[in-house]
Design brief:
It is built from 2 helices and 23 strands. The strands form 5 sheets. Strands 2, 3, 4, 5 and 6 form a 5-stranded antiparallel sheet that branches. Bound molecules: beta-D-mannopyranose. Beta-D-mannopyranose (BMA) binds next to strand 8.
């Protein structure tokens, strides 16, 4: 395969070579977690978080639950993508629209460079979980925009470029609790305020791919390649001991991303280490971001472990695509 990966070259990516005994498509950083639960004075846990290249280093928006168990998102900065300085206080947004309702909580952020801004999306508490939105140009001032969907919805994951002239996002309609179902949908907007053209992308599977049999949700911002959009997502299994969150990958059509091109039967990574299996919510590996270098084809996936800490795993984009295509299942 002569794979083409679209995007900015990123030579300063965090990296460790694949351990010699490793045969899986992803391998974990040996020093995980990279952000522990007490990285700020008031944090109970810091986990499902988003990062982007910024200036000479990296910027991030971190999910920080505090010791009152309030859920919020805080800014983080890093020179190497591994060591992070996370603000002790949540991001204070400046509202770009009048009469914008406050949110009761914010969690599971995603960040994308798109159309001259860094856009942020998160799960926003407004009469239940919906999708909140904002942007920043400098990671100093954060502007809040209209919530893009009414409740109940989670896992709003934007595309890094317009599609058919519109902004585009993946999302997962849900309920007000620990939702027992969940499919991935696609929507477009001409202006980031009004959203429509809703399309179903993919749903859960049965016993043929049980790690994604309860619900699925988009994870990291999709990566544009000559094989389609590479989507890293999470899938959930209901076990005797509750939900198990693993991560997998799919390929979506470049111009009609609601059309699934391929989807891996097997997970890329499931909770198996102590920092994924033990914590506030055991057995969770929850991806929210990736960094990749089109030059080398390397990818680093950022994921929450056990709703407690932030971790990274490494891979090669071409190998992940081969893995997805070699045993692919339908939507
Ligand atoms: C989901 C979200 C995530 C969390 C996961 C596992 O519904 O709330 O933030 O990581 O459950 O608890």
């Amino acid at each position: 395969m002569s794979l083409k990966i679209i995007g900015e070259k990123l030579s300063a990516l965090p990296w460790q070579d694949r351990p010699s005994q490793c045969t899986s498509p992803l391998w974990r950083y040996s020093e995980n977690p990279i952000v522990g639960r007490h990285a700020t004075p008031q944090s109970n846990s810091i986990f499902n978080s988003a990062v982007v290249p910024f200036k000479q280093g990296f910027a991030g928006v971190f999910r920080v639950d505090d010791t009152a168990r309030r859920m919020n998102i805080n800014r983080g900065m890093s020179s190497d993508g591994i060591h992070w300085q996370i603000d002790p206080e949540p991001i204070r947004f400046v509202s770009t629209v009048s009469n914008l309702p406050d949110s009761e909580y914010k969690y599971d952020p995603r960040v994308v460079w798109l159309d001259k801004h860094y856009y942020l999306f998160w799960c926003n508490g407004y009469h239940g979980p919906g999708i909140g939105a904002g942007y920043t140009d400098d990671f100093q001032t954060f502007h809040r925009q209209e919530n893009i969907f009414a409740p109940y919805n989670r896992n709003g994951v934007p595309f890094p470029r317009k599609i058919n002239g519109n902004f585009a996002i993946l999302h997962r309609p849900s309920d007000n609790g620990h939702t027992q179902f969940g499919d991935i949908f696609y929507s477009e907007s001409p202006d980031m305020t009004y959203w429509g053209k809703h399309r179903w992308v993919m749903g859960t599977r049965g016993s043929d791919s049980a790690w994604q049999s309860t619900k699925v949700g988009a994870g990291a911002v999709p990566i544009e390649t000559s094989e389609g959009w590479l989507l890293i997502y999470h899938g959930v299994l209901t076990s005797c001991n509750g939900f198990v969150y693993s991560m997998g990958a799919a390929l979506l059509d470049l111009e009609q991303p609601w059309k699934l091109r391929a989807r891996g039967r097997n997970y890329l990574l499931s909770p198996q280490t102590p920092y994924e299996c033990v914590g506030d919510v055991p057995n969770v590996a929850f991806p929210c971001a990736s960094l990749q270098d089109p030059g080398t084809g390397r990818i680093v996936i950022y994921y929450g472990g056990a709703d407690t800490c932030v971790n990274i795993a490494f891979g090669m984009i071409e190998e992940i695509i081969d893995f997805v295509k070699s045993d692919s299942i339908g939507p």
